[in-house]
Task: inverse folding
């Protein structure tokens, strides 16, 4: 196989979330040839329509390379997105997502295939959902050559998921990032905080306070009292709160897994955020879990893998 | 003892918090003769000084009845208040609060005595503090004729406290009310909510979801998914979240007491909020605890009792 054949454009892949938009021109095996991040997240479109954003970001590639299949993952498939791609129930494999792709037609005649999210509805429990992270997980698994394992996507709503023999068999959502943001910005806890670099000592102290103590409504108040009693400097309170919340997320994930007769494995894959992954790596290590971080390329790899499974790629373009 | 003697003005009592101000003219045994709620909470003073608010609210009483001692409880004694009344360490009895009263002098020559808050600093744990609720607790205990018991003050920062032989031996803070407010107003959970009356069924469902499940970062997300899957109507989501959080508060309080080798007693006193106390009564009942609600008169009774203990009342005025 020659270099030029490898570099042939085969797929347009979109990572289209609530606040961000990224478009990629990919080879059949998911290598990035070009990128365009000029579009907007679904809640920040302004006057533009979904179709206009899609066309503007991808037309130059189609004009240059001819008709190319296009696939998207993220909140673009939610009820607030372009069209709703109904959740696929867990356990789910890559083929389940491929089978659940929903097509929207742009007026130019070009189609966009939207990856469905996943749902998990266990009798007697509230349902849980993911949208976007399922694609990251299959992508990260492909990048790491794994068929099984624990995957964690830190963020506004962190997701923990178990992959077993190529199927996502369990996942859970934790509102860690959003909780951190609203407490810093809108609660009394933010009042004592001053800006400052990450304070590793304060962060670790937050992790310590969370360990074995899942009493969040109570322990959160320590962010105030440790500031009042000057046991943590004002510049370290954000890091302390971050440690407290991430530590609590690990407590809870571990508790949920125990309820299922599982335990947190000794190894995990962290996906996504370059700023949060190092913090989660520290927190997981403290809980006895070594982790490997995979960046945003997980989404791209996942989109390419789902497109191939769905037969969207030309057979001749497969690597 | 005759009626007129009972009705003699003996004390000015102020309940002066972050957002509210209430002044009372009391008899020596804490009966209300007159009230004035025209002042402002410490964070809403505008152009006025603490002294101006104090003088304006109380001068007419002094002019009518001569010099009267004045006592205040609440955030007026915090670092953001008129003057800081340093925390008294637990265990603390009424006499500890009386001994910790801090005097501020107004330029008119009249003094205001400010009740200190309580702190609890246990080695290896973050400190905890109350300011204002200590007065409510001693007042509610007096009103109910109790020397011991569990007292709960629902609110922005709920407090649970144990009174034993007239001493507050333990308390803990839970950020339940503030969490509810910021999540409704500033998080994704508020997006699906519509206004509606209290939904007792949804509230109870929240309590059920919390019971035995202290996984708050995870369970909070069910407020969204139960809405998305139309298992709870949009108008019931606030009540569901309220149940989830109050249920979690009970989980946590119970867990903290267990750690101390105690348990939640079968009877508790709820103090304060007329809107929250009935919700807490339902939640406590579900946890096997019967409760008795005491209103805002707890603060007034507590201020009178502390004033008497401190010797601020004329001996002849004692009942």
Result:
């Amino acid at each position: 196989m020659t270099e030029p054949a490898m570099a042939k454009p085969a797929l347009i892949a979109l990572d289209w979330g609530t606040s961000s938009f990224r478009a990629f021109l990919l080879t059949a095996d998911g290598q990035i040839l070009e990128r365009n991040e000029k579009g907007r997240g679904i809640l920040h479109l302004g006057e533009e329509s979904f179709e206009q954003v899609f066309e503007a970001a991808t037309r130059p590639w189609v004009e240059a390379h001819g008709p190319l299949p296009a696939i998207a993952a993220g909140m673009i498939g939610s009820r607030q997105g372009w069209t709703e791609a109904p959740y696929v129930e867990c356990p789910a494999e890559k083929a389940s997502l491929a089978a659940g792709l929903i097509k929207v037609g742009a007026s130019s005649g070009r189609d966009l295939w939207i990856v469905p999210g996943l749902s998990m509805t266990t009798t007697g429990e509230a349902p849980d959902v993911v949208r976007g992270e399922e694609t990251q997980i299959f992508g990260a698994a492909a990048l790491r050559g794994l068929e099984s394992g624990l995957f964690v996507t830190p963020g506004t709503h962190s997701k923990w998921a178990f992959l077993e023999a190529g199927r996502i068999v369990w996942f859970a959502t934790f509102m860690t990032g959003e909780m951190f943001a609203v407490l810093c910005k809108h609660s009394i806890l933010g009042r004592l905080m001053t800006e400052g670099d990450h304070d590793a000592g304060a962060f670790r102290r937050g992790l310590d306070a969370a360990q074995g103590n899942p009493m969040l409504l109570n322990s959160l108040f320590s962010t105030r009292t440790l500031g009042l009693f000057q046991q943590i400097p004002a510049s370290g309170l954000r890091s302390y709160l971050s440690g407290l919340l991430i530590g609590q997320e690990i407590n809870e994930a571990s508790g949920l897994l125990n309820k299922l007769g599982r335990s947190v494995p000794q190894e995990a894959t962290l996906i996504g955020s370059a700023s949060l992954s190092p913090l989660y790596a520290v927190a997981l290590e403290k809980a006895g879990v070594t982790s490997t971080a995979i960046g945003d390329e997980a989404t791209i790899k996942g989109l390419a893998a789902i497109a191939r499974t769905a037969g969207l790629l030309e057979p001749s373009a497969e690597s």
In short: The two ends of chain A are 9 Å apart (CA to CA). The mean pLDDT of chain A is 93. The longest helix of chain A spans residues 237-259. The interface with chain B takes residues 79, 121, 126-129, 157, 172-176, 178-179, 182-183, 185-188, 209, 214-222, 225-226, 228-229, 231, 245, 248-249, 252-253, 255-256 of chain A (CB under 8 Å).
